[in-house]
TrEMBL record:
Highest taxon of the lineage: Bacteria
Origin species: Bradyrhizobium valentinum
Keyword flag Kinase: yes
InterPro entries recorded: P-loop_NTPase, Polyphosphate_phosphotransfera, PPK2-related, PPK2_PA0141
Highest classification ranks of the organism: Bacteria, Pseudomonadati, Pseudomonadota, Alphaproteobacteria, Hyphomicrobiales
Protein name: ADP/GDP-polyphosphate phosphotransferase
Subunit comment: Homotetramer.
Length: 308
């Protein structure tokens, strides 16, 4: 298999094509299982020249890890654990892609995503952490924060949405806030997705060229490109001030999206000791039929037209 050139050296048109293939892979992920995997990857094996990880290895590992996530989900439910996972990083670093793979095959009633919009006028007058607290898990739940209270140390600070006094108060408060969460029985795991300047530029360019992904490129994302160094300084201060033993930061090298997904999920599984729980087999009861029941007619206009 041809090796992919280092990030930043591949022509933009080739990168766009690679991104389109990656989008194709995303669709396959929703449909495949172990029995169908080899047939699908064999059919499209010649289309993987831009990948750094063999697509067969990627798919097999992803499905295996997702199987382990299901076991973890059952363990969390059974023992009424409370799990919070924070995903932070620069725009286009791949946080959403990892979250999508984690939740892809899990029960949304057990594992849910909290992705809060910008605070409204009322929320701006609240205690800073207040609007995040309502999204914390109850027993038997996993909550994935797609960005979190660390907005204050990142985008809010860099874009001037808060004062330096508010940032300093955040740095004083957040270690105690997180220790309080951990003392309450919450397992708190924090990931920072790290990409290079060149990789972010290429991903932004790919979003510009792909009409299906242009919605991902917000005005704030565009503005962040000119403030790369300011974001770097803010990130360094954040990691230094909030890396605590009770809730340490873990850095994910994310220039290669597929490797980042596998590495992050594998690491997450290692943070919560779990075992497979044997469930009682499901037995369907016999179908009850009432001879007196007769299905009424349905008007033709109620049916969706069969166009395909």
């Amino acid at each position: 298999m041809t090796k992919r050139p280092p990030n930043g050296t591949m022509p933009i048109n080739d990168r766009i094509q690679a991104e389109m293939l990656d989008s194709f892979d995303e669709e396959l992920e929703l449909e495949i299982d172990d029995d169908r995997l080899d047939a699908l990857t064999n059919e499209f094996a010649d289309h993987t020249a831009e990948e750094t990880i063999d697509r067969r290895v990627y798919f097999k590992e992803l499905i295996r890890l997702q199987g382990e996530l299901i076991k973890l989900q059952t363990w969390v439910q059974h023992h009424k654990l409370k799990v919070v996972v924070i995903f932070e990083g620069r725009d286009s670093a791949g946080k959403g892609g990892v979250i999508k793979r984690i939740t892809q095959r899990l029960n949304p009633r057990v594992c849910r995503v909290a992705a809060l919009p910008a605070p409204n006028e009322r929320e701006r007058t609240q205690w800073y952490f207040q609007r995040y607290v309502s999204h914390l898990p109850a027993g038997g739940e996993i909550v994935l924060f797609d960005r979190s209270w660390y907005n204050r140390a990142g985008v809010e600070r860099v874009m001037g949405f808060c004062t330096e006094d508010e940032v300093e108060e955040f740095f004083r408060s957040v270690p105690e806030f997180e220790r309080m969460l951990v003392r309450s029985g919450i397992t708190l795991i924090k990931y920072w997705f790290s990409i290079t300047d060149e990789e972010q530029y290429l991903r932004f360019m790919m979003r510009i060229h792909d009409p299906l992904k242009q919605w991902k490129l917000s005005p704030m994302d565009v503005e962040s490109r000119s403030r790369w160094e300011q974001y770097t300084k803010a990130k360094e201060a954040m990691l230094e001030r909030t890396h605590i033993p009770e809730a340490p930061w873990y850095l994910v090298e994310a220039d290669d999206k597929k490797k980042a997904r596998l590495n992050c999920i594998a690491h997450l599984l290692e943070q919560i000791p779990y075992q497979e729980i044997k469930l009682e087999p499901v037995v369907l009861p016999p179908r009850v039929r009432n001879p007196e029941y007769s299905r009424g007619p349905i008007p033709p206009e109620m049916y969706v037209p069969s166009r395909y």
